[in-house]
Design goal:
This protein is 38% helix and 21% strand.
Length: 219
């Protein structure tokens, strides 16, 4: 059953005022005497002093918070331009920036060209089609590419003799996720597909060539 005494202070304030007023006006009808109301009116006096003081304090706190927030916003607005000057200044060292408690910008570390090579395997399945798989020579049991690599360059020569050098290769694609499926013309059936690969970075830097892989194209 709900409590007859309201929870919110403002509601309780109205309720208690009505209670005391009605009780004092109807003592005899309620079977009360003035002495019965003495502790009630005494406690009421303390309450009616404390409640307005609390309301005033809350309102003052809200006003103080708004003043504080506005002061901080204005303060930050004049700090930021100065910090931008300090960040851009050639005479302010990183140690001085750290002492000021402002961000010390870190220059990105160049990744550099790849240093490892892919390991290639070729699966001969459907007619005029081969599936190329590749892993990194440093982590041959994992499928992950080396750090800082966007994908692998695939180069190929289709013929009857291996390429003497990279100048005889034809660029096929940059593949970002193994496997890569190569499709061939009908005239390539029975010939050999010679494949070279190398890792490439997002900036276009290339790593060393892989060992050559080769497989006959199913006719």
């Amino acid at each position: 059953m709900a409590d007859y005494i309201p929870g919110p202070d403002a509601n309780f304030q109205a309720w208690q005022a009505n209670f005391v007023t009605y009780a004092n006006a109807n003592l005899a009808a309620l079977g009360l005497v003035a002495a019965d109301m003495t502790p009630i009116t005494s406690a009421q006096g303390v309450w009616t002093t404390a409640f307005p003081a609390h309301v005033a304090a809350v309102n003052a706190a809200k006003a103080a918070k708004q003043t504080k927030d506005e002061a901080r916003s204005a303060y930050v607005a004049v700090i930021r331009p100065l910090v931008r000057r300090l960040q851009a200044s050639a005479v302010v060292s990183d140690a001085e920036k750290a002492s000021l408690g402002i961000t010390v910008r870190q220059e990105p570390t160049p990744i550099g060209p790849p240093t490892t090579a892919p390991i290639i395997s070729i699966e001969v399945g459907n007619r005029l089609q081969q599936t190329l798989r590749f892993v990194d020579s440093a982590t041959p049991t994992r499928k992950a590419k080396p750090r800082g690599v966007i994908g692998v360059e695939i180069w190929s020569k289709v013929g009857t003799t291996p390429p003497a050098n990279e100048n005889e290769l034809r660029f096929v694609a940059v593949d970002t996720n193994a496997p890569y499926v190569m499709n061939f013309d009908s005239t390539d059936g029975g010939k050999t597909n010679y494949v070279w690969m190398r890792w490439v970075s997002p900036t276009g830097e290339r790593g060393p060539w892989s060992e050559q892989a080769q497989a006959t194209i199913a006719a």
